[in-house]
């Protein structure tokens, strides 16, 4: 993104030479996916003091941002014995008071009781759109960028859940299998569970950073079997080797980003 105007970014859309044609229901005319993305993307206005990605990342990481998304957590046992263990899924719920909340969990997050989870149901004709979200490396449902993305969806009446990678967001690392960009087994289980629980809901995927990479791997593995109607990936490190080498080429990459990500990964084993 670039622009000659202060704090205004010029958006660039890159797509296949033969874009995907879309045929929406009446009264909307036929269109293409790039045209729909272009029409749906609002203008990008930036703080002129945060004039590059490093400053924007630093601001986000160090500024307290109150985005009151509330969660209830359920810990799923892995269904695939090849990847035995457990993983935590945080479901977005209406705001609630949580006196004596579990301090080992992120803010505004409490665990479902077995009775609450069994009651987590909807009418057979429920068609509430629902998004399944994957966070970035060593992150979780508590991340500001993730809650910022969920806020307008929740306000519009969407349902949402966040698949926390094993050991992340205060979840127990109770498995010999951690996670990586090909670790699609947990999101596959959650999407299948949501489809079985709410058969008429339209399901969507949203992934950030490493979670974006996991999501596109899941989409590729599922192929035509995939039950997600659409997916959005943000800041996807498409080629992990190239991305790793790029981090090592600069002082900021080596001493800031790599150190911060490495320290976060170490904490998974220390807690």
Summary, kept brief:
The protein has 271 residues and is an alpha/beta fold. The chain has helices at 33-40, 53-62, 114-118, 144-155, 185-197, 210-222, 240-248, 251-270, and strands spanning 8-9, 21-22, 31-32, 44-45, 70-77, 86-93, 109-111, 130-134, 159-163, 203-208, 230-234.
Describe the structure.
The structure is a single chain. The chain is α/β, with parallel strands linked by helices and 271 residues long. 33% of the residues lie in helices and 18% in strands. The protein contains 8 helices and 11 strands. The strands form 3 sheets. It has a 7-stranded mixed sheet with strand order 7-5-6-9-8-10-11, with helices on both faces. Strands 1-4 form a two-stranded antiparallel ribbon. Strands 2-3 form a two-stranded antiparallel ribbon. Strand 5 (70-77) and strand 6 (86-93) form a beta hairpin. The mean pLDDT is 88.
What does the secondary structure layout of this molecule look like, with pairings?
Blueprint: E1 8-9, E2 21-22, E3 31-32, H1 33-40, E4 44-45, H2 53-62, E5 70-77, E6 86-93, E7 109-111, H3 114-118, E8 130-134, H4 144-155, E9 159-163, H5 185-197, E10 203-208, H6 210-222, E11 230-234, H7 240-248, H8 251-270
Parallel strand pairs: 5-7, 8-9, 8-10, 10-11
Antiparallel strand pairs: 1-4, 2-3, 5-6, 6-9
